[in-house]
Structures are given as C-alpha cells and as structure tokens.
Amino acid sequence: MKRFELPPLPYSYDALEPVISRKIMELHHDKHHAAYVKGANVALEKLEKARKGEMEINVREVLRDLSFNLNGHILHSIFWNNMRPPQENNRPGGEIEDLIVKNFGSFEAFQQEFSKAATSVEGVGWTILAKDEENNLYVVQIEKHNLMHIAGLKPILVIDVWEHAYYLDYLNKRAEYVNNWWQVVNWDDVEKRL
User: Fold this and answer.
1) Of 62, 79, 179, 191, whose CB has the highest number of CB atoms within 10 Å?
2) Nearest Cα to 184, choosing from 103, 102, 117, 91?
C-alpha cells in the first residue's frame, strides 16, 4: 500500500505573519500534521499485516485510526495550500466568486455563514466549503477530522479550528483567529479546487 508523506509548506514558516505566527506554523506542520501522517501509515501497516495473516487486529479500532489520521493529513494538506501571505481586502474573483454569490447571495453572506460555522464547531474540528458534482456549495463542520463528514462532497476551502492552529497567538479567542484568517485565504487555490 502507498505510504503517506508530510508535504512541505508552500511558503516559509513566517509567511503568514502577523495572522499566524512562525511558531504556530512550525508546531502545527512539523508536529501535528506529521503525527497524522505517521498515524495513517501505522494504521495501513496494521491492515497490511492483518490481510497477510501476520497479526490480528481490532478492525474497528484500526479503521477508526486510519479515518482520523488520514483525514487529518488530507485536510491539513488542503489547509496549507488554501493560505498565502496576508492580503488587504482579500476577496475571491472569477468562477469561485460567481459560485459563492449564486449559492449564498453575496460574498459577505458566505463569509458570515462560514465564520459562524468555524467559531461554533463543538470542541475541535474544521469548517469546510465543499462542492458537489454540480458545483453546489455547502458549508460543513467536521469534528475531530472524521465526524460529521458528508460523503461525496469535495473540500475546496478549509479552516482548522483545533486549538493547535491558533492558541499560541490568540489564546481562547477563536473568533478573532477566524476573522483574521480571511486575510490569508488563497482564493487562487480555492478556484483551482473547483
């Protein structure tokens, strides 16, 4: 089976400052994301050995570990590319802007709904702008990487609202982090994901 690797960041650790600090980026990418990659690979190794009859596993437990860690890896890989150095008046253009307006009425209405979803995820998780095969857009909350996922939707914009994504800079002020995060959204990457 394929093994997963930690992708490099598409920019330097300090590229998102002052919105997200170098220290958070180092810890978030090099420790947290790396742990999900390792966890996904460990789960795959256990599945391989079980399939060959080399070990017995608790299938439910291993599949849960694979889901949790692989989703963590996939979502973080999107998250890094969904961001770029801060931009003033950072707004989408092109097809993604047209789809946002079509689906939400205006960019401001979308931004408000997405921000409310991001600040209200229970515990730890993600808020995602996802699309279906017909380019209908949905704002989705995912808890712990793998709970509340809607099958068949493709994530195109994600924000990590686990505390490790912001706590060193914002403490318990998740709403301030979410509000500032809009400055670093890479709308070109979001458009490519359509």
Assistant:
1) 79
2) 91
182 in the same domain as 117: yes
Instruction: State pLDDT tens for residues 142-178.
Output: 988 877 677 889 999 999 999 999 999 999 999 999 9
Inter-residue contact 125 to 142 (CB < 8 Å): yes
**What domain count does the chain have?**
2
> CATH no. for residue 64?
1.10.287.990
Task: Give Cα separations from 151 to 48, 96, 135, 148, 192 (angstroms).
Answer: 25, 22, 15, 9, 21
State how far the Cα of 39 lies from the Cα of 45, in Å rounded to an integer.
10
Determine if the pTM surpasses 0.90.
yes
Residue position matching structure tokens 């600090």 = 21
